[in-house]
């Protein structure tokens, strides 16, 4: 996983140039706070790229957010579920899978409803469900 300063999100596809496009897991997002707690649990300072998520956000929690709308800069996404950690996490670091398995620490996945370019430092916020009607 390579960090970038900006990326393009495309409706119905996900992040442009990402190997996994389309389907339900168009974009994966993790919480910086949850990642910090994972590092505390593991007594390490692992880089968030080990999680292999598309986006890392600050000041957001994702537990039980299925169905909610999240705005990343100009883009709107619908959270479709929890990103469950797989065996690749333990291949990256022993114990990482179990540490990510609590309180949705592995993050969430969602579909892109409004595409555009997201940039490091963009505002991130929850949107009301009625935003889809306007």
Report on the structure:
By secondary structure, this protein is of the alpha+beta class. It has a single domain (25-133), classed as M1 Pyruvate Kinase, Domain 3 (Beta Barrel). Helices cover 16% and strands 31% of the residues. The strands form 2 sheets. The protein has a 6-stranded mixed beta sheet. A 3-stranded antiparallel beta sheet has the order 2-1-8, with no helix packed on it. β1 and β2 (14-15) form a beta hairpin. The longest helix is centred in the first third of the chain and has 11 residues, at 32-42. The N and C termini lie far apart (36 Å).
Summarize the structure.
The chain is of the alpha+beta class and 134 residues long. It has a single domain, classed as PK beta-barrel domain-like (M1 Pyruvate Kinase, Domain 3), CATH 2.40.33. The radius of gyration is 14 Å and the shape is globular.
């Amino acid at each position: 996983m390579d960090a970038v300063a900006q990326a393009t999100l495309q409706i119905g596809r996900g992040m442009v140039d990402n190997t996994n496009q389309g389907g339900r897991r168009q974009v994966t997002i993790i919480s910086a706070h949850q990642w910090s707690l994972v590092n505390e649990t593991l007594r390490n300072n692992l880089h968030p790229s080990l999680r292999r998520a598309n986006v890392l956000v600050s000041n957001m929690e994702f537990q039980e957010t299925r169905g909610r709308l999240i705005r990343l800069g100009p883009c709107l996404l619908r959270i479709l579920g929890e990103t469950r950690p797989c065996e690749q996490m333990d291949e990256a670091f022993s114990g990482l899978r179990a540490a990510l398995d609590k309180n949705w620490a592995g993050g969430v996945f969602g579909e892109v409803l409004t595409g555009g370019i997201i940039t490091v430092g963009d505002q991130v916020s929850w949107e009301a469900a009625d935003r889809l009607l306007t």
